[in-house]
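User: Fold this; tokens only.

Assistant: Input:
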Amino acid sequence: MGAGQSTSSEHHPPSKALHVLRVTPSSPASQTDIEPFFDFLVGFEGDSLTQANAIDASQLERIIEQHEGRILNLLVWSSKSQNTRVVPIQPSRGWSQSANLSGSSTSQPSLLGLSMRMCEPETATENVWHVLDVIEGSPAESAGLVPMGDWILGWSGGVLGAENDFYDLVEAHIDKPLRVYVYSYDFDALREVVLIPNRHWGGEGLLGCVFGFGLLHRIPPQPEDRLPGSIPIELQETEEGFEQQDLFVPADVQSRLHYSHEQLEEWRMQEHDQLNQETATRENYSFHNQRSLGYPTESLHDHDDEDPLSSTGGRTYASNDIPTPRIPLHPTTNGHS
């Protein structure tokens, strides 16, 4: 029981097949590479598989029961690779005996641990919802939905048949948990996500998420050399690039741990002297500024004696002696008082 072997390069899907919806943990199917939503059970090895013949579910059930405890080679068609492969599996009921001992169910346990439905594989994978945008602080962000990289395939109750089925399902689960199956294209993995639609998260909509549906929003095929569940090449290159980079330190910057005590003391003295010099300069500038902004010590109308030290020929100013200027009471027409 391991990875299946590809037996056909046929890119056309079979007309009818059993669509795998869920693989039960610890079951015989969980020990294989059967993938929910993407794999379809089309027959068993030795069966004549043609496009005209649909799978006979009753016959397949009898074959599985006859192979209980023995290896049975199932034929599984993948919607990802568009190929049919052989998957060896050993049907058994022993994996669920412990669960039946604690429960009261009288039904027979499954031999394979698969939940399936009969459908047409060609159209079964068309009903997917592409996550285009996720609003910050929304229920979609809290659930971990990734914009542009995630697709919603179905929910815990099965698959959805039309576009509005998903929106109706969301409205039916307001303030209640909704379990959906989300496919990540970047990591080629399927995961279960719990959404809690509500109207009080602070934004528009129940989920705060924008979806795309239709032909332009279907899941693109993976590269042929891509291994399921592997890290994308883009992320691997980014991670390697960061590991190879070294910390850049400019040549003129040194650590203070390399400076001696004498150098530090010398720099402190230089800073102290520079601060004193700046303080003295500011005090000197303030003194001269006060002298230049004083009032004249003599009458404003006495222009006989000029200060030879003044660059403009004005009077000597002082800030401590401010006489009251004499203002003419009756102006004359010739400009003299």
